[in-house]
Structure formats: structure tokens, C-alpha cells
Write a structure and sequence with these properties.
215 residues; alpha+beta; Ubiquitin-like (UB roll); 13% strand; iron; 2Fe-2S-bd_dom_sf
């Protein structure tokens, strides 16, 4: 049987070993961080060039594949009318239309919309020639702080088009006749657009006026 090994750890040896271990870990961590930084900065398969038709003009941008349509509009094209509210698709401030259908741009990736026609609030009327819905919001004081207004107006215009196209909502009772533009229909279809100032009754009045004028 082998004799027991006599082992004695000196304080100096322990301190030196601990220091070497700490330095090794620090350099290893720094090397990993530098590698990650290089990977993050190097363009490759995680980036794409996408062409969007925005308010009637073709715009090409190169973006990270994870970039939302909202961030492309705001950060790459400086179209800041479309607002970032909750960034979770719950407030409607980021509403735009894609090929005529309203979407929450914060939930949609830009690379999904190659060649699509995007309309933002900047493409709806001008200060000199307001869209009827924009004028109705002014007439009925359909906004207070105004932050949600671009999304509200974009959705409101789509609501009238959806009703006229016969697209039912959860409150549509009769699917065999033309859907009427009622308060209940408007409220249900606009429920995804939140106004934290509480101007809902005025927004309802504005949409109703436009629907009646266009009937």
C-alpha cells in the first residue's frame, strides 16, 4: 500500500494560483465579447435589402432581418408620423395599411413586405388639402395630446372601407344584408386603437360624419 501523500498549500501559492485563474477568466471573457462584437458588426445572412412602396414611392433599405416595419419607417425613412406606443400590438398607435389592409407595424417584420404598398399618415392628405377623416377629427376635436391620432385616422379610414366591403365584425348580427355603419360597429372595429386621453366619443362622431358624407 502506498504511503499517504504529504501535501501542504502555502499561502503564497494559493494567492498566485487565484490571481492566475482570475486573469485567465477575464481574458477569456474579453475574447468572447470581442468575437461577438465582430459577428454583430459583420453584415451577412442576418441582413437583407428590401424594397417597399411607401406612399407611392419605392424605397430600398438594408436592414437586420429582425427589424420591424415600424422601425424601418421611423428610423430608416424618417417617417415619424407612425408612432411607437406599446410596441406589443396592443395600442394601435403604429397602424399603417399594407396593400390596403391595416396592420400593426410594430408586429410585422420589414423583410416580409418586399414589394408591398405601404401607406402611412404622411400619405393621407396634406396640410393644404386634408383628407376628410383628418378634417373630421379637427372638426369634432377627435384628439387631445395627438400621439395616437395617426393610428386612429388610419384605422378609421379602413373601418369604413371594411364595412362597405361587407367584412363582418364580432357585433355584426345579420350576414345576409349590407352591414350598417352603426356606433356598435365602429366601436368594435376601433377597439384596437387606444386613446389614453379618452377622446372616444369625439372620434366616434368624426368617423360617423365621414361615413355619412360618403354614403
Amino acid at each position: 500500500m502506498s504511503p499517504p501523500i504529504q501535501f501542504e498549500m502555502r499561502r503564497r501559492t494559493l494567492l498566485v494560483g487565484t490571481a492566475i485563474g482570475a486573469l485567465t477568466a477575464a481574458f477569456a471573457g474579453r475574447a468572447v465579447a470581442q468575437t461577438q462584437a465582430v459577428v454583430a458588426e459583420t453584415p451577412g445572412a442576418d441582413r437583407s435589402a428590401v424594397t417597399l412602396s411607401v406612399n407611392g414611392t419605392d424605397r430600398q433599405v438594408e436592414v437586420d432581418n429582425r427589424t420591424t416595419l415600424l422601425d424601418v419607417l421611423r428610423e430608416h425613412m424618417q417617417l415619424n408620423g407612425t408612432k411607437k406606443g406599446c410596441d406589443h400590438g396592443q395600442c394601435g398607435a403604429c397602424t399603417v395599411t399594407v396593400n390596403g389592409t391595416r396592420v400593426n407595424s410594430c408586429l410585422s417584420l420589414a423583410v416580409m413586405h418586399e414589394g408591398d404598398e405601404i401607406e402611412t399618415i404622411e400619405g393621407i392628405g396634406t396640410p393644404e388639402a386634408l383628407d376628410p377623416m383628418q378634417q373630421a377629427f379637427i372638426t369634432h376635436d377627435g384628439f387631445q395630446c395627438g400621439y395616437c391620432t395617426p393610428g386612429q385616422i388610419t384605422s378609421a379610414r379602413s373601418v369604413i372601407e371594411e364595412i362597405r366591403a361587407g367584412i363582418p365584425s364580432h357585433v355584426t348580427d345579420d350576414l345576409t344584408t349590407q352591414i350598417a355603419v352603426t356606433d356598435a360597429e365602429i366601436r368594435e372595429r376601433m377597439s384596437g386603437n387606444i386613446c389614453r386621453c379618452g377622446a372616444y366619443s369625439n372620434i366616434l362622431a368624426a368617423i360617423t360624419q365621414v361615413a355619412e358624407d360618403q354614403a
